[in-house]
Amino acid sequence: MNEVAQTSLAAHGSGVGLMDLFWQAGFVVKMVMLGLLAASIWTWAIIFDKATRYAAFRRQLNNFENNFWSGQSLEELYHTLADRKTTGMSSVFVAAMREWKKSFEKGARSPVGLQTRIEKAMDVTIARENETLESRLGFLASVGSAAPFVGLFGTVVGIMTSFQAIAASEQTSLAVVAPGIAEALLATAIGLVAAIPAVVAYNKLSSDATKLSSRMEAFADEFSSILSRQIDEKMTAR
């Protein structure tokens, strides 16, 4: 038993670099570290992807608002967007106009019912857009909350293993103890490296998603008012 412990402690003392600490770690600690590294890589991939998509989404909102308020007729704008793949406000606008046209083609008689259907169509579209905006943000929240504890689990297992080897060898000098403790603490460090960017990114991206959603909802309210006035005019003309 002493020979095994001596060998384990000698291995711990053979290197103190990060890669040395990783290779000297036990199987469980290695799996924890690899899992946290994979989570960190996926976290950064989501961050860059979402930042790019949100910037493009924001530009699309700005472009649509410029076109919508430029004085172009609603019919012309609808025909321009109807056959295209739309997102954001464009999708909300197309959904409302499609319901508007279908209802009048079928001879809508109730302005209240028509207004309700149009608002429902816009609400459903906004909900779908929000689902796209918020997709994979839950992963960032999970990593931010769980990664430190997963790293701590790896540290606890590593320290237990080191203490068992130290107790068996009956050697307690700092030179013998330190490498094993450093090896175990590396798991916690990797957990924090994964968690901190995930938490910061989740808060920022969630805030951005909320702002983009608010802009769509504000447009839906304004457009609903515009259509309400036109519905009243058409019903009165009948």
UniProtKB/TrEMBL annotation:
PANTHER family: PROTEIN TOLQ (PTHR30625), TOL-PAL SYSTEM PROTEIN TOLQ (PTHR30625:SF3). This is Tol-Pal system protein TolQ. Part of the Tol-Pal system, which plays a role in outer membrane invagination during cell division and is important for maintaining outer membrane integrity. Residues 112-217 form the MotA/TolQ/ExbB proton channel domain. It is found in: Cell inner membrane; Cell membrane. It comes from Aureimonas fodinaquatilis. The chain crosses the membrane at residues 27-48, 137-160, 180-202. InterPro entries: ExbB/TolQ_transport (IPR050790), MotA_ExbB_proton_chnl (IPR002898), Tol-Pal_TolQ (IPR014163). Its main location: membrane. Keywords: Cell cycle, Cell division, Cell inner membrane, Cell membrane, Membrane, Transmembrane, Transmembrane helix. Belongs to the ExbB/TolQ family. The keyword Membrane applies. GO terms for cellular component: plasma membrane. The keyword Cell cycle applies.
